[in-house]
Design a protein that fits this description.
The protein has 275 residues and is of the alpha/beta class. Helices cover 47% and strands 12% of the residues. It binds adenosine-5'-triphosphate. One of its GO terms (biological process) is protein catabolic process.
């Protein structure tokens, strides 16, 4: 549900060091965040505050991790929702939920004595697709308008400075009104990792696992072209399960090798149309 993330007692804090293979995305994002941190200077110079950052790219590449890392980097509270949370049958409910999440963010920032908050909206295209293109377009239009109104209302000297981070793999579906200056005017591409990126991610997700001497993660990285971070995380988990099934105390290279196929197979099964 909306805002749940902020009320759940701290899950492990995520920092940029926990994200593998996204150095250019992280660099771009940090630049934008450093800019925001300088809010007194921004105010003094009369610069329009940066309100929204949109992250684009395929699923499972770390967009959610990036938003959470951005929150710890800027010492902000973190509130998250998915575009589909705002889709309701009844007119006005989506818009109400948009206003509610902004309110929740402000309130929990005050409660936690923080000066800023990050609102993360995953699958934003669901709520922000081009107006007039949805079946029940009136309702969508209201929801999107509510988001635009909230964003337009953000000021640099607000008690709680809010930044909206949104993620989508369909930036082409977004209403252009959202991409105009003063709204989501920074775009950060979060692509599938290359070989070195995959190696970094594999290292991160095996750091808590006992690896046998013969494990060659570079080789695994070579074999996993097209895998996302989420696939790689799942691969390391599968490898550990395979080792456990054999009653072993360590994970061997062959387990990783076998897990590659498992993850690929799993993907194929997932993609089967529903009966
Ligand atoms: P979606 O668009 O499907 O929401 P996403 O891009 O937000 O996906 P995340 O939710 O951030 O992806 O990633 C899912 C999980 O995959 C993470 O919790 C993490 O375990 C792993 N993961 C994904 N990308 C990375 C990465 N770059 N480095 C380390 N782990 C990653």
């Amino acid at each position: 549900g909306i805002g749940k993330a902020s009320t759940i007692p701290k899950r492990q804090e995520i920092s940029f060091e926990d994200i593998g293979g996204q150095s250019s995305a992280i660099k771009e994002l940090k630049e934008a965040l450093d800019f925001i941190k300088n809010y007194q200077e921004i105010k003094r110079l009369g610069i329009r505050p940066l309100k929204g950052i949109i992250m684009t790219g395929p699923p499972g590449t770390g967009k959610t991790l990036m938003a959470r890392a951005a929150a710890s980097y800027t010492d902000s509270i973190f509130v998250s929702a998915s575009g589909s949370d705002f889709v309701e049958m009844y007119a006005g409910v989506g818009a109400q939920r948009v206003r509610k999440i902004f309110q929740t963010a402000r309130e929990s920032a005050i409660k936690q004595k923080k000066k800023s908050g990050i609102i993360f909206i995953d699958e934003v295209e669901v709520l922000a697709s081009k107006r007039g293109q949805n079946a029940s377009h009136m309702e969508y239009d209201q929801t999107l308008n509510a988001l635009l109104v909230e964003m337009d209302g953000l000021k640099v000297d607000d008690n709680v400075r809010l930044l909206i981070m949104a993620a989508t793999n369909r930036v082409d579906m977004m209403d252009p009104a959202l991409l105009r200056p003063g709204r989501f005017d920074r775009q950060v591409k979060v692509d599938l990792p290359d070989k070195n990126g995959r190696l970094e991610i594999l290292k991160l997700h095996t750091s808590n696992k006992p690896l046998a001497q013969n494990v060659d993660l570079l080789q695994v990285a070579r074999e996993t072209f097209g895998f996302s971070g989420a696939h790689l995380e799942s691969l390391t988990n599968e490898a550990a399960i395979l080792a456990m099934r054999e009653g072993l105390k360590e994970i061997y290279h062959r387990h990783f090798h076998e897990a590659v196929d498992k993850v690929i197979m799993g993907e194929k099964l997932d993609r089967r149309p529903n009966p």
